[in-house]
Amino acid sequence: MMRVRGGKAASSETARWERLILWGIVVLAVVLRAWGLSHQLPDKTYIEEDEFIYTALKYGSGDPNPHWFFHPPLYSYLLFALYGAYYLLGAAAGWFRGAEEFILQYLVDPSAFYIIARGLSVLLSVPAVLLLHRFGRNVCSPRVGLAACLLFAVMPLGVKYAHYGCTEPLLLCLVLAAAVCAARALQTGRVRPLLAAGAFAGAAMGTKYTGAFALALVAAAVPPPTRVSSWAALLGAFAAAGAAFLLVCPFPILAPQEFAANVSLLASQPLQVGEYSWQRIPNLYLEFARRHMPVGMTAPLAWISLAGTVFLWLRHRREDILVAALPTAFYLVIGRSRLFYDRYMLVCYPFFALAAAALLDAAAARAAGLLAPAAARPRRAAALLAAAAVALALGGAGASARLVRLMVLPETRFLAARWIEEHLPAEARILADDAPVPQTEESVRREQRLKEREPRQEFGYREKTGLYFDLQRRAARGRRGFDVTRILHPRGFHMLGGGRGYEEEWMTPERMKAQLESIDDYDYVLASSTGAYRYRAREILPERFRFLHDFYAGLAGRGTVVKVFRPEPSRSTGPEYTLYRVGEGR
Questions:
Q1: How does DSSP classify residue 42?
Q2: Can you give the pTM of this predicted structure?
Q3: What pLDDT score was predicted for residue 280?
Q4: CA 413 from chain center: how many Å?
Q5: Rounded Cα–Cα distance for residues 39 and 404 (Å)
Q6: DSSP code for 561
Q7: Residue 495 confidence (pLDDT)
Q8: CA 187 to CA 319: how far, in whole Å?
Q9: Contact yes or no for 330/210 (Cβ under 8 A)
Q10: Where are the domains of the chain?
Q11: How far is CA 415 from the centre of its chain?
Q12: What is the rounded CA–CA span in Å between residue 286 and residue 291?
């Protein structure tokens, strides 16, 4: 009887320590993600963050169709609910008297809207860590689950995108929820958790299309489909995924032509290794492992994660296949594409963390078997795993801290815009490269006329017209502004294997060229080193865009340098901006 009580007490003590360590990891994840949350505000740094916020606010007009399907709408619906609560609170407190004042606040100072979206990203890290622990505990062991949580909590890529209002944190939660349900289905043989896994996978697809890779978890959780019941369970789970997707994104049915037009353009971009902005993109199978993963999770953890994934396939337990299924499917498909953005791979990182923890645990158990007597081996193996995980986590935490430190430094483009606002005469005519120089009302009106006359030739980021421009002009009335013309750049091209080029900017190359050739119509030009570097090699540019090289190369001879805005270590970040006085100047 005493042994039973002692065993229960030891088990209870172990569970308490496990909970304590888990919540310590949660706190660490939240602190790393909340630090510097207001970075660069009130300026806008990440274009997709602004698109999500604008889309969510636009639902307030009464139209739930986003009319923009480069991303499915679940995340923007969630933001809309939060902004609705903020509006009701602000209306009750007298912060704004109606919907127009609410939107006007977004245009004058959008900080509150960004903090709400970014705060949601931080809060979503809590269920992500808890779900990863549950998944790791179920398919491996409690200590492997804790080690995976620690490694994932400090990964720089996860910390980076939790500092933005974007889809990735919600996507991670839904995919991990699908993984937990798939593990339960695998271990119990029951259909209900498998259907739940399919539903969570469908919701993940309704957040970001890469959520479709969660279906690999569903497939891995089904027994080998040799019996009719296995096929029925698999088809039922896929049907649940489709139903969940249509529930959160019903527009393939409600607006099929609009949805298909957006998605077909999106689908035409990947699935070939090609050129982007005239830079050759190498084979992404190597590029992800050699460059993106070492930056996103530190080099030691990246290599251990890849080795751990191979180890799981070789050990070949069904639980191991479940862990390795999603990153393997992702790697095989995305490795053949041109979509080299690091954020696309973030959905794999919890599974890579778990694969690394499983490999370290196996190595620790083998080492303990060689170094310790039989009675002490479990404790020694746990200590070795903890030491390895903490060592790797210290490297990740340091890399994440350095990343956040850079994110909170002022960007040179914003410093340039502030200097211009303070020192140049009002309504000066400025040709600006990417810096958010405040516009006059007439400048906003002219930009609106151009966009109405020359709409984009392809579906890119949705145009903002109507009420948005009306309120933008109202916001411009109350501030010191300038007659600003933006230097626009083609976003990308695909020209290999006979593929046609595509542009996502709303200006044609001819109008872009005319805009830059009329340099004497401006008083100042603000140019970035990024543009000069991008177009430095004239001979490799498409013929219709060689004028961009000529423009940047000829600036020094056509204008007088007024001020140079350079990044300074520990004080500012970003490319170098040069302000030239051209034409008559002021």
A1: T
A2: 0.88
A3: 52
A4: 22
A5: 9
A6: E
A7: 36
A8: 9
A9: yes
A10: 2-36+122-262+284-408, 412-581
A11: 25
A12: 8
Q: Are 25 and 146 in contact (CB under 8 A)?
A: yes
And the tokens for 164?
């933005």
Do residues 395 and 304 lie in contact, with contact meaning Cβ atoms separated by under 8 Å? no
Q: How far is Cα 211 from Cα 201, in angstroms, rounded to an integer?
A: 6
Name every residue whose Cβ is closer than 8 Å to that of residue 549 and which is 6 or more positions away in sequence.
535, 536, 537, 538, 541
Res 441 pLDDT > 70: no
What would the DSSP string read from start to end of 501-536? Answer: P---SSS-HHHHHHHHHTGGG-SEEEEEHHHHHHT-
Cα Dmax for the chain: 97
Contact predicate 317/261, CB 8 Å: no
Residues 235 and 232: their CA atoms lie apart, in Å, by 5
**Would you say residue 501 has pLDDT above 70?**
no
- Judge whether 494 and 338 are in contact, CB under 8 Å: yes
Comparing C-alpha atoms, which of 230, 217, 331, 237 is closest to residue 283? Answer: 331
CA distance 431 to 521: 9
Cβ contact 485:439 at 8 Å:
no
Tell me, what's the pLDDT at 228? 59
The winner for highest mean pLDDT among 41-45, 185-189, 390-394 is 390-394
Predicted confidence (pLDDT) per residue in 332-351, tens digit:
887 776 666 788 889 999 99
Classify each residue of 496-524 as buried b or exposed e, where b means 16 or more C-beta atoms within 10 Å of its C-beta: eeeeeebbebbbebeebbebbeebeebbb
Residues 6+ apart with CB under 8 A from 291: none
Tell whether the model's pLDDT for residue 418 goes beyond 60.
yes
For residue 299, the number of C-alpha atoms closer than 13 Å in the C-beta half-sphere is: 2
Q: Are 217 and 326 a contacting pair, CB within 8 Å?
A: yes
- Decide if 136 contacts 145 (C-beta within 8 A): yes
Amino acid at residue number 256: P
Residue 346 is classified by DSSP as: G
3-state SS, residue 555:
helix
d(CA 172, CA 30): 15
Rounded Cα gap, residues 334 and 332, in angstroms = 6
| Residue 110: both structure tokens together | 């959008």
b/e per residue 118-155 (b: at least 16 CB within 10 A): bebbbebbbbbbbbbbbbbbbbbbbbbbbbbbbbbbbb
Torsion of CA 470, 475, 476, 478, to 10 degrees: 140
The label of the residue with tokens 């037009």 reads 261
Structure confidence by residue, pLDDT tens digits, 162-174? 999 999 999 999 9
Does residue 278 register a pLDDT over 90? no
- How far is the CA of 264 from the CAs of 191, 459, 479, 505, in angstroms? 34, 10, 42, 18
How far, in Å, CA of 289 to CA of 263, rounded?
28
Summarised one tens digit per residue, pLDDT across range 221-267 is: 987 766 657 788 889 999 999 999 999 999 999 999 888 887 877 76
Give the count of beta carbons closer than 10 Å to the beta carbon of residue 477: 10
